[in-house]
């Protein structure tokens, strides 16, 4: 599959596959006496499935692009499906395998698994965590958040509040897993006496919301990454892109600046949400309304939202004039 980007058209149109058992000697898959050429994408959204003509046993694999879209660059998202085949007589078996040295849970978590994961963290560290929800999705799934603090449930004067959110595009799964691992990591490190983590917990109130769009995640998860395009699960169940669903306060501020209303008629900070946006008829997702209500209720001094698909960091005002 190509790059799921609104700004570029990058995908590979053909590629070769090489395999190895020692990472030094490589063999290219053949079609008779010639190198086997696999057909890639014709456009960036729809994934292409290719099957080896015969089973291959290997420890390492390389995918070498041969051609790509003429107006773009080399970019491909690859998912390799296979099965483990241990060989106890192989000297190299498990010799170079990279494994984690901590106790973190590396896997994809569906909605129920995510909820159970958060419950386990809360039960392991009940004195510094609290689970709550900020509302529900269009399909009625609760938007769960976990708070990490030495006084869960209480705002302490002078103690900054921070939030991390993820999964506004339901099919961008990395953010959910990073926040789940972060809450687990902070709990385990706090219990082990890590002074840096203890300082964060005791001097900051941290809120982690791992899935803003659980409906989209479940939709994409049910179909599977090998059959779904970049857009499946991206939006809410009623077709709204949460990431672009918030009120455009930038234009209001810039218009006030051009009319020289600042600072006499209008402040250049804490710009109010327009009344029309808060009406029942406005095209605003339930998830978006829940996020706004949450941000208005909690005195956050800083926040970050995790997305996938691009190597980029955006910050206010997040658009050009």
TrEMBL record:
Family annotation (PROSITE patterns): CARBOXYPEPT_ZN_1, FA58C_2, FA58C_3, PEPTIDASE_M14
Entry keywords, A to Z: Carboxypeptidase, Hydrolase, Protease
GO terms classed as biological process: proteolysis
CDD domains named in the record: FA58C
UniProt xrefs under InterPro entries: CARBOXYPEPT_ZN_1 (IPR057246), FA58C (IPR000421), Galactose-bd-like_sf (IPR008979), Peptidase_M14 (IPR000834), Peptidase_M14_domain (IPR050753)
Keyword check for Ribonucleoprotein: no
Peptidase M14 domain location: 107-321
Family matches, as Pfam families: F5_F8_type_C (PF00754), Peptidase_M14 (PF00246)
Family note: Belongs to the peptidase M14 family.
Protein name according to UniProt: Carboxypeptidase X (M14 family), member 2
Lineage, highest ranks first: Eukaryota, Metazoa, Chordata, Craniata, Vertebrata
Gene name tied to this protein: CABZ01090975.1
